[in-house]
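[Amino acid chain]
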Amino acid sequence: MSDNRLKLFIYYPIVLASVLTGGIYLGSTLGIGHLPNSVVESSSVNSKKITNLLNYVQEEYVDSVDLDGVTESTIIKVLEQLDPHSSYIPARDLDATNEQLNGNFDGIGVEFNIIEDTIVVVAPINGGPSEKLGIRSGDRIVTIEDSLVAGNGIKNKDVISMLRGERGTKVKVEIARRGVKKLIPFKIERDKIPIYSVDAGYMVDDKVGYIKISRFGATTYDEFAEKLDKLRSDGMKSLILDLRGNPGGYLNAAINICDEFLADGKLIVYTEGRSRPKDSAYATRKGDFENGKLVVLVDEGSASASEIVSGAVQDNDRGTIIGRRTFGKGLVQEQVQLADGSAVRLTIARYYTPTGRCIQRPYGKDDDYYGDFYDRIESGELYEADSISVDDKERFVTPGGKVVYGGGGIIPDVFVPLDTTSYSEFHRQLINTGVMREFALDYSSQNRSVLEKFDSATDFRDSFEFSANDYQNLIDFAKGKDVSVEDAGEGKSEVLNNLKALIARSKWNGNGFYPIINQNDKTIEAALKTLR
């Protein structure tokens, strides 16, 4: 195996974890009182067997037993026997799990990293209380409620616990800011903080727009519609919809977005399960982008709701799918809250694309579900389109005559191999260790007056240039963080472009980051070639 392929073995567990904790969910959750009577009132031999066993263990086992822990382990084991995506969520984790899909939480509104035992503000969240009070990217939180939090081994979960709280309550923090000798005190009133799922929307040129969606949550469609409307007013004629790395989310969010692309009456998706009758979703209104050219970008991290969108576009011959084969998750979960505040996400249906494809890949006892990514690496599928295996039994044809396949993800119309050559080892280490982000935050703090001169992210992208010393400063900074700089002379332009994108993110968030980082993106290049 080549060195470049070996490095992917470190990366793919992260992608896999993202998809397995993501998925596709019905737009609402059920409480225990809404379960079918056959479930709630079950008196089957099997359910009694489990209850009797737990009672017996509690009463008679030789040592004291954490029965709550045993019960949770039992539930997890039961769900593991069903499929890879049915899951149990302990009560203590439920709020945090739901936040990403609900689209908000109560807190002070900062994105942060812990760097060298210090809480560093990556960026205040737009419209949040911290931004309104003037907290900046690069600020370091030293105390919270008069307790020192710098240099004492604080963890992410501790920071979240201290900074989040009920809307309307206040928290006192003291901040160290570069160039200011004394700590700056802030008393921040917690508020409802949005979690944005549409990371960026901008014009690539005078005719092509770009929208990046990171997940499908409760607010995704509204965010998308706002971006789409803005791009159309800016003259957009063609759209690049980027769903790479998007692990899924709410079914309705995906359906509503498809409705903007498809003519009234077109089938978007249908779901069906053993106890759930076939339920079809159609485009029901005139969409705002039914006629413009459309490209959807996907990769091995695009799953469930992302696959619904790309499948609907492909099966209706509405646009071009570009990238690599998607994850292959065609199962629908419903979340049911249990009496103690925990929840179960149970697979209750499969979804099918308009041609009738189920894109769920096999997950039986003989299938290495979790090893699929590694199989893709070994087979060469990530590098050559000819290495993608298909099952002729899963062959379908679109109304326009295009042959498509089910049984294991969405195969793109235009294949773009995974690029393992653009990143030098130095560049890779800068990213993996977090050193590049740390340097970008320091640079932003030290050069705030320079950044303030740029009116917009576009102005920064087109006009900003690093000085002759900046790259050497980065190398010296990396040395001090024990990063090997042996090949720092390779790929200098790519490193600086990445650094520039991170600096832009600290000021303009995704709308600053993506216009810069996408300049060196081969999948974006393929999309532009297709559209032009």
User: Anything to note?
Assistant: The chain has a mean pLDDT of 90. The radius of gyration is 25 Å. Residues 425-531 form one domain.
